[in-house]
Design brief:
Helices cover 56% and strands 17% of the residues. It starts with a helix and ends with a strand.
């Protein structure tokens, strides 16, 4: 059902995109035609007026040479072609006609339309149509000495035929343009939404098969669709890694919970067998409380690590003094260090500030100091130091304990991992994974340098507070 619906949605989207593209293409073509048509019409009209104006200037020059007789004489000397093309009339002050030359084509024009032209008009143009409505005439006038007015007109039939041919060509090509817009829109839409179709197919395959290893094919482009595909693949990678981490965590939790739960059951059975001995019952209940607290601590730490790694942990970010936090942790572990004859030193040359969640940051330092004290021998030394380097704060916790074998350094950050030499110490195997997750949630990093039987140094790099 959902598969058919997605296909319908995709088809509808493709059709809409094709239709919109074709509509845009046709409207754009129509707009370009209208603009081109009016530009050509304006140029044709301007050209007609230039031809008439040149003829007016020529006749005015003839008139100025010898008056109306010279104009008539020179006009009669022209070829029949010129007389057949141009309408020429000289009108007196009282609208009386002194000279007129009417081409054969002008016979269908009502001369009364020229009465609206005033003899005092300058640079006046009039377009009049003949009775057949098949053409029009462009009339221009010019004043002559003595109060006379020269009227010259030219037929614009050829210009109208040119514009009519232009309109006919557009009408003939409008259907191919429409088809081209539809076909082009379909092709472009098909290519544009190819990443979406691949994405839909990948989602459908994941839903049908349950295999999170499926990925959307990447074309290597730089458009928004290609960026969407890349982000979707990154999301699938993140989900896949989270699912695998969750499965591994569940396996480890199930394995590690088996021991404390077996102990709880054994303690409870022992208490039930010795119910007549209140001291044994109280001792068994105390052991049960201790084991349940250990299980609860492990589960809470696992949840914190998972939240930090997935980016959903809520951090109360503030300006935190590194000096205050490190001295607070040192004071907290001073008694435990004294019991093992371990010296606790703090080396802070000047005040440093970072943007961090104070509680979480203090937990990180406490975990590192706890490990340093736990794995250091008697009369050892634990050093807490901090300095600023290249815009970052470097916070180090060093010890002189058993160190970490080189083959185990890459695995100490794994959840619930405990090295062979550390299994004799009480712990959950979550401290360092917690440290790494919290530091990375603060946009920092943590590294370790260690040698067997010489100690370890854990260094945290965090940005300096602005």
């Amino acid at each position: 059902m959902s598969s058919r619906r997605s296909r319908k949605i995709g088809l509808s989207f493709s059709l809409k995109m094709s239709f919109l593209y074709a509509l845009f293409f046709v409207i754009s073509s129509l707009g370009l035609f209208v603009v081109a048509y009016y530009l050509i019409e304006g140029l044709v009209e301007q050209r007609e007026q230039e031809i008439v104006r040149d003829r007016i200037n020529e006749y005015v020059a003839w008139y100025e040479e010898g008056g109306l007789r010279a104009l008539k004489a020179r006009f009669d000397e022209q070829s029949n072609t010129a007389r057949d093309v141009f309408f020429v009339r000289v009108v007196g002050p009282f609208n009386n006609v002194l000279f007129v030359s009417i081409p054969e084509r002008f016979q269908g024009v009502d001369l009364n339309q020229l009465k609206s032209i005033s003899s005092t008009e300058k640079d006046f143009w009039l377009s009049i149509k003949d009775r057949t409505r098949k053409g029009s005439w462009t009339i221009g006038l010019a004043p002559l000495p003595g109060g006379f007015t020269l009227q010259v007109g030219k037929s614009s039939v050829q210009s109208q035929e040119l514009l009519s041919y232009f309109r006919t060509v557009f009408i003939i090509f409008v259907v191919p343009i429409l088809l081209l817009g539809i076909i082009g829109g379909g092709i472009l839409t098909f290519r544009a939404i190819r990443p979406i179709r691949s994405l839909i197919q990948t989602v459908r395959d994941i839903l049908e098969t349950g295999k999170m290893s499926k990925r959307v094919p990447v074309r290597g482009g730089r458009g928004e669709m290609d960026e969407l595909v890349g982000l979707f693949n990154q999301m699938l990678d993140r989900n896949d890694s989270l699912i695998r981490a969750m499965r591994n965590s569940l396996d480890n939790v199930a394995h590690d919970l088996r021991t404390p739960m077996t102990r709880l059951r054994g303690m409870a059975e022992l208490a039930l067998q010795g119910s007549n001995n209140p001291d044994a019952c109280y001792e068994a209940l105390g052991d049960c409380m201790e084991e349940s607290e250990r299980v609860l601590t492990m589960l809470n730490t696992l949840m914190d690590v998972a939240e930090a790694e997935t980016g959903v942990m809520r951090l109360d970010m503030a300006r935190v003094s590194v000096r205050e936090v490190m001295w607070a942790v040192a004071d907290l572990y001073e008694i435990l260090a004294d019991e093992k004859n371990i010296s606790m030193d703090v080396d802070l040359p000047h005040e440093l500030f970072i943007n961090a969640d104070r509680t979480r940051f203090q937990q990180v330092i406490a975990n590192l100091v706890d490990n340093a004290v736990k794995y250091s021998g008697d009369r050892g030394r634990v050093l807490l130091s901090a300095c600023e380097k290249e815009g970052d704060v470097l916070i180090s916790v060093s010890d002189e304990g058993m160190g970490i074998p080189s083959e185990e350094i890459g695995r100490i950050w794994d959840r619930l991992y405990r090295g062979d030499r550390s299994r004799s110490r009480r712990g959950l195997g979550l401290g360092l994974s917690f440290v790494k997750a919290i530091v990375q949630a603060h946009d920092g990093e943590v590294v370790v340098e260690s040698q067997s039987n010489k100690g370890s140094t854990f260094t945290i790099r965090l940005p300096v507070a602005g």
